[in-house]
Amino acid sequence: MQTVLHTAGSRGDANHGWLQSKHSFSFASYYNPEKIHFGVLRVLNDDFVAAGMGFGLHPHDNMEIISIPLEGDLAHQDSMGNQTVIKHGDIQVMSAGTGVKHSEMNYNKDKPVKFLQIWVIPNKKDVTPRYDQITLDPANRINTLQQILSPNPEDAGVWIHQDAWFHIGKFDLDFKTNYNVKKAGNGMYAFVLYGSFELAGQTLNERDALGVTDFDQFELKALTKDAEILLMEIPLH
User: Fold this and answer.
1) I need a labelling partner for 24 at 20 to 30 A (CA). Which of 9, 42, 83, 114 fits?
2) Are residues 161 and 54 in the same domain?
3) Distances (CA, A) of 23 to 11, 111, 115, 147, 184
4) Can you give the pLDDT at residue 130?
5) pLDDT digits (tens, 9 = 90+) for 97-147
6) How open is the CA angle 25-5-151, to the nearest 5 degrees?
7) Is residue 76 part of a domain?
């Protein structure tokens, strides 16, 4: 097993007033040659958008884009005709494929929205663009790993064009669980949402991340009450 630690403080920092964003990987004006991607995980942006503000209509292609609201509500509109609002508990996915335009706005005029935007490089190029959104019960991730994404449309969560599996777990103090790799050769990028964990012998605090490779299984232990983590298993090539 090999690991690489990315602390919360080592992320790129962009403050545009209405938008405060932390970049785990090189993005926009933030460039770090050692943090371009982790396998097919290309972008992990931790975004804070002021009340009533947001991203205007902009294009994407050949990327799997996943949005996970942490607090507040996010209004989505795209060139496929979708107009939706996503909130905590919802998972949104967009396969950009041959090309799509979308906007993301804070739906509320009186409070900020916090969400993760994640880009995964697909295993198929130029697919027909698609959109999906589901609502999961956060109570179903207490002391267990709730699957929120997979490669299979019939499985729990949303699906993408990639051999990737995402899980979120929220644990009591000292709760332990094991994660078993879904596909041999995949890597894991673990991102702490709240609290602290011990993972693969490393202590991780809030918004720290750990990349794990060459593993079949690892143990995860919560070091604080209500510790919450996002696990992203993805191909390394």
Assistant:
1) 83
2) no
3) 5, 22, 12, 24, 28
4) 98
5) 999 999 999 999 999 999 999 999 999 999 999 999 999 999 999 999 999
6) 60
7) yes
Answer yes or no: is 102 within a domain: yes
State how far the Cα of 88 lies from the Cα of 109, in Å rounded to an integer. Answer: 17
pTM of the model as a whole: 0.97
Split at pLDDT 50, 70, 90, the class of 47 is: very high
pLDDT at 5: 97
32, part of any domain: yes
In 3D space, the residue among 166, 56, 69 whose CA is nearest the CA of residue 120 turns out to be 166
Distance between CA atoms of residues 192 and 94, nearest Å: 24
Q: How many domains does the chain have?
A: 2
What pLDDT score does 103 carry?
97
Is residue 115 within 8 Å of residue 148, measured between CB atoms? no
* CA distances to 148, 165, 173 from 234, in Å: 14, 7, 28
- How far, in Å, CA of 3 to CA of 200, rounded? 8
* 155 and 95 share one domain: no
Are 131 and 163 contained in the same domain?
Answer: no
- On whether residue 6 sits in a domain, the answer given is no
**Residue tagged 């012998």 (tokens):** 201
Looking at 104, 119, 135, which one is the last position of a domain? 135
* Residue 107 three-state SS: coil
Domain hosting residue 172, numbered range: 139-234
